[in-house]
Amino acid sequence: xxxxxxxxIPSLINxxxxxxAGDHVHLGYWAQGTSYDWHTAQEAxxxxxxxxxxxxxxxTVIDVGCGIGGSLRLVNGRVCDSMxxxxxxxxxxxxxxxxxQATQGNRFDWVHCDAENVPLDxxxxxxILSLEAMFHFPSRHAFLTEAxxxxxxxxxxxxxxxxxxxxxxxxxxxxxxxxxxGYAPWPAPILCTDEMELMAQNAGLILRDLQDLxxxxxxxxxxxxxxxxxxEKSPVAAMRDLHYAGLLQYPMYVFGKLSS
Length: 260
Ligand SMILES: C[S@@+](CC[C@H](N)C(=O)[O-])C[C@H]1O[C@@H](n2cnc3c(N)ncnc32)[C@H](O)[C@@H]1O
Hints:
Blueprint: H1 9-17, H2 38-53, E1 60-64, H3 70-78, E2 83-88, H4 91-97, E3 107-112, E4 125-130, H5 140-150, E5 151-160, E6 163-164, H6 170-182, H7 193-203, E7 205-212, H8 220-224, H9 235-244, E8 248-249, E9 251-257
Parallel strand pairs: 1-2, 1-4, 2-3, 4-5
Antiparallel strand pairs: 5-9, 6-8, 7-9
Helix pairs in contact: 2-3, 5-7, 6-9
């Protein structure tokens, strides 16, 4: 399993430990007309995903690429008597996850494994979340196949992605290279939602809903990067400039099992 990648994680872990950041490792969501602060916008993004998951008491829920546990912490506040399982390939983040306390009869389990090979039984899971993580996975198709294997009939997968269109200029190609290097691993950055839907169908999942959050995440850049930062050097500035150039998309998918 990995160790050399995820260079952006240690600074986020440090920021969390000293109280400069919360427990969400993802962009913010600003509904039309809102002027949330950064933390509220990150919680709004998580809550948007959790609303789409249609959670009920007594379920098994897996968060694939669970970061430092912020999403499952919010799931814990929404349900009772549920098994909440966070999966991460990076043990440094799981150490922080272990500090979250389950309540209301819920249980947490934090599992060190790859998104494409989760050590749980077939049809053992009611809901799978993967918030802004699958662009890191070696293969989206392998992840979707694993999700289909894990889900019970009528199970749901809610997942969001950051994808890019083919760069139109040499500068944009360089920015994309900076993103891929700075946020490695990022094996397949160029993808459209139709390709994703087909991939999911081949994996045994059917698209139930697709939301384009591209515009709603845009204010994120004003909160996490300085206007002066150079996109040739800073991966977050490179991502911002690709977004402003119309080359970045942020889709959120809801998939069900094909047979359900
Ligand atoms: C941008 S962070 C999102 C974290 C979390 N979902 C959140 O919203 O706070 C991406 C996460 O995916 C995890 N990850 C990346 N590749 C993975 C893989 N192959 N298997 C499991 N987790 C992975 C990273 O360690 C990181 O926690």
